[in-house]
Amino acid sequence: MAEAPAAAGGRGRLTVGLAWALVLVALWLWGKGNDPGAGAAPTTGDVAAVGRPGAHALPTRQGPTPHGPTTSHGPAPNAPTPHGPTTSHSPAPGAAPRALDIAGAGVHHAPVVARGLDAAGAVEPPPYRRPGDVGWYRAGPPPGAAGVAVLVGHVDTESGPAVFHDLSALRPGAAVRVTRTDGTVAEFTVEEVAVVPRARFDARRVYGQGRPGRAELRLLTCGGTFDRATRTYTANVVVFAYLTGVRGGVRG
Questions:
Q1: Rounded Cα–Cα distance for residues 16 and 39 (Å)
Q2: DSSP output for 36-66
Q3: Closest CA to 243 of 171, 167, 149
Q4: Contact 68, 235 (CB under 8 A)
Q5: How many CB atoms are closer than 10 A to CB 244?
Q6: Phi–psi pair at 102, nearest 5 degrees
Q7: How far apart are alpha carbons 168 and 222 in whole angstroms?
Q8: What is the pLDDT of residues 75-119, one digit of tens each?
Q9: Residues 202-234: pLDDT tens digits?
């Protein structure tokens, strides 16, 4: 009879333990389901509010020079023929991006890191402490593969210009090169450069699937003017580019 209380206590501890286990499982499932980068699609171009310089940072600059509220440049009349169903070429097999070069924007072998989405539904850029890095939206295709690959970067930080500071200076026909982990370099040609107001950001246009059978690239950063009241930029610079060559490595 003296063992009955101990047995009852053991059953009680087991019940409590099971209850805590169920709570932990439920929290894990909730967290997984609310992971911004878990297969969700970008809905904004906020780029994690890229460019929030302090009140005295970059005193001679109010933000990237805008091309107008909804202005875009492109396409170039003599741009190279894109890879796609109308040519003998095809998109490259999938391989993650490793580095980015854009001579026309002063970007030279910038490291590329995989990123998800932030709470606002925008592709999360690298941390501000790494202003020279570029973020790749890992839930989408890698640059060079069929579909639309997305790369984002800061325009500036509190201490000065960042990797995509001069992205708005690009024009149609400019070259973009992405070094990939398989040793290949995917070469893109800029088709259009647009400044899109955040209030009228069209996720379908920016992140859409592009032309069937074509490998495309989107580059995003902040643009327009810097609003000191909200500490954000008023627009996004969006570069549209398409695959025009793949060199190096072994292609299948």
A1: 35
A2: TTSSPPP----TTT-----TTSSTT--SSPP
A3: 149
A4: no
A5: 19
A6: -135, 95
A7: 9
A8: 433 444 444 433 324 688 889 999 999 999 999 999 999 999 888
A9: 888 888 767 888 899 999 998 888 877 777 788
List phi, psi (to 5°) of 105. -115, 10
d(CA 175, CA 163): 16
Token pair 């206590």 in the structure block, residue = 9
- The amino acid that residue 69 corresponds to is P
The C-alpha atoms of residue 17 and residue 97 are separated, in whole angstroms, by 45
The total number of residues written for the chain in this structure = 252
Distance CA 21, CA 236 (A): 45
Q: By CB neighbour count within 10 A (0-12 exposed, 13-18 middle, 19+ buried), where does 135 fall? A: buried
pLDDT band, very low/low/confident/very high, at 64 (cuts 50, 70, 90): very low
**Whole-angstrom distance, CA of residue 215 vs CA of residue 146:** 4
Tell how strand 72-73 and strand 185-197 pair up. antiparallel
Q: Are 105 and 31 in contact (CB under 8 A)?
A: no
Tokens of 18: 């099971």
Q: Give the residue from 194, 195, 196, 198 showing the smallest Cα distance to 230.
A: 198
DSSP structure string for 158-205: TTEE-TTTTGGG--TT-EEEEEETTS-EEEEEEEEEEEEEGGG--HHH
State both tokens at 136: 């790749």
Tokens encoding 32: 């997984």
